[in-house]
Amino acid sequence: MKKNNMIKIIKVSFVFLTALILSRTSMAYLTVGETAEVLPEGYYKLGLQPQAVISDGSGFNMGVYLDTYLEDGINGRIEIGGGETEFWTAGTVKWVPIPDVDKQPAVGIRGGFSYARDSGADLYHLLIAPIISKKADTRYGEMIPFIALPISIPVIDTKVNNTTGTQLAIGAEWFYADVNYGLELDLNLGRSFSAISAFISFPFDSATGYKK
Predict the structure, then answer these.
(1) CA 38 remoteness from chain centre
(2) Higher pLDDT, 18 or 83
(3) Centroid of chain to Cα 197
(4) Per-residue pLDDT at 159
(5) Which candidate, 60, 67, 56, places its Cα nearest to that of 82?
(6) 104 pLDDT exceeds 50?
(7) Parallel, antiparallel, or unpaired: how do β-strands 87-98 and 74-83 relate?
(8) In Å, what is the CA distance from 193 to each residue of 20, 27, 41, 104, 141?
(9) Which pTM does this prediction carry?
């Protein structure tokens, strides 16, 4: 492995371990809903993301999101949603310093900020999610399995039990007829919940529109 890649891995690992150390254990209502792949310049993705909560009394959330290219190796996402969680919105940036090349998986980290309104309380969180993914060719077309560790850290003290939440996210994304389909299982690791999420997204080119 090249020295530059080793340095990048160390940096990503440091951020990942720091998040775990800070992790006291909150509502991680946001799924990851993406791999460690990044969009090329001039591309966007508009997506829908339903989520079925399978613990803590169950429930249903629905979100919409927009992904965009920012710089090489960096994408941005804005999203909004509601349901079991009354309302949320978030903005995140995904940085992938190690791309998917040969047998090497893509390794990245997503960070951002979210606001949610739930049970009469205002919730503000810093979001961190290390992500690893690897492309695979299957009989059904190209698939990208991924694994991530979404962590939500409260940044404003509210008068509720608002502590850090952690989940383990395991999923995959498929490509069919210029539409991206995804499925994700979110497992509660601490002060969060378990859920099954799906996502479907439509790629756009800034010059020609929807990529049919």
Answers:
(1) 12
(2) 83
(3) 11
(4) 58
(5) 60
(6) yes
(7) antiparallel
(8) 17, 7, 36, 31, 32
(9) 0.81
Q: How far is CA 59 from the centre of its chain?
A: 20
Tokens standing for residue 11: 């940096």
Q: Where are the beta strands (DSSP E) in the chain?
A: 43-53, 59-71, 74-83, 87-98, 106-118, 121-133, 136-138, 141-148, 151-154, 165-176, 179-190, 195-205, 209-210
* Residue 172: HSE in the Cβ half-sphere, 13 Å Cα cutoff: 13
DSSP code of residue 187: E
> Distance (Å, rounded) from C-alpha 68 to C-alpha 84?
27
In three state form, how does the secondary structure of 32-81 look? CCCCCCCCCCCEEEEEEEEEEECCCCCEEEEEEEEEEEEECCEEEEEEEE
Half-sphere exposure of residue 82, counting CA atoms within 13 Å on the CB side? 5
Instruction: Pick the closest to residue 203 from 108, 82, 69 (CA basis).
Output: 69
- Per-residue pLDDT reduced to its tens digit, 18-63: 443 333 334 546 789 999 999 999 999 999 999 998 876 678 999 9
